[in-house]
Amino acid sequence: MPTGEYLDSIVTEYHDGSAWVDISAYVVGDIKGNNGLGGWRPENRVSVLGMLNITINNKGKQFSPMGGDSVRGLSTLTGWNKGAKIRVRGLYRLTYYTIWTGRIASIDSDDLNWGNEQVRVMAVDYNNVPVNFPMKGAAIGLNKRIDQAVTTILTRLSLQPEATSFDTGVFTFPAVFDNVQRKTLALSEFTKLANSELGYTYVKHDGTLRDEN
Fold this sequence. Notes:
Blueprint: E1 9-15, E2 20-22, E3 27-36, E4 48-57, E5 85-92, E6 95-109, H1 111-114, E7 118-124, E8 141-144, H2 146-156, E9 163-166, E10 173-176, H3 186-197, E11 200-203, E12 208-212
Parallel strand pairs: 9-12
Antiparallel strand pairs: 1-2, 1-5, 3-4, 4-7, 5-6, 6-7, 8-10, 11-12
C-alpha cells in the first residue's frame, strides 16, 4: 500500500475453526497493536512480542469468555475462545492488506463499567510460542546454517507459524544448541542465531516467521 494514504476501512476477523468471521461491527473504540523489530541495533535482531488490544460490544453475549451457557443467557460464537486466531486487515482501493495476525491470549469482561456488555481482548503474535518454550533436551546440531537451525527449533514447538520465509544462511555454524540449559527458551536460540548470522528474525503482519541472512 502506498505510504501517506488512508485505508478505506478496517476489518477485524477471528477464525472459528473453519473460516474467518468478520466481527468488525462489534469492535468499539481504538484498535491498538504492535509487532516487528524494535530497532536496528544488534540487540534488536529478533522482533519483540507483538500484541493487539481491542474492545468488543458484548450486549448480545456472543463474546463472553465463559462459553455458551443457556442458564446465564450466553450464546458465545463458535470457536471464540483463548487460542483462536484473530487478524486485522485494511481495505485500500479494493485490495485487503493484512495489518496484524495472532491468537487470543485473554478475554476479560468489563463488569465494573459496563456490566459484561463489553469485553476486552488481548492477542499476541507467534513470538509468544518460542518465548515460552524451553529447549531442554535439544540435541547438538553440527554444521548447520541459520535457516536449518530455526527449522529444527520449529519441529520442537507445539504451535507452528502461519507460514515461514527463510533466507539461506550465509554462515555454517560448526555447532548449534551446544549451550542449551534446562531453562533456555527457543526465543533465546533465535536471538543467538540471528546475532551470529548478523541477520534478523521477526514475525510479519500476516503471521509469517521471517528469517533474513
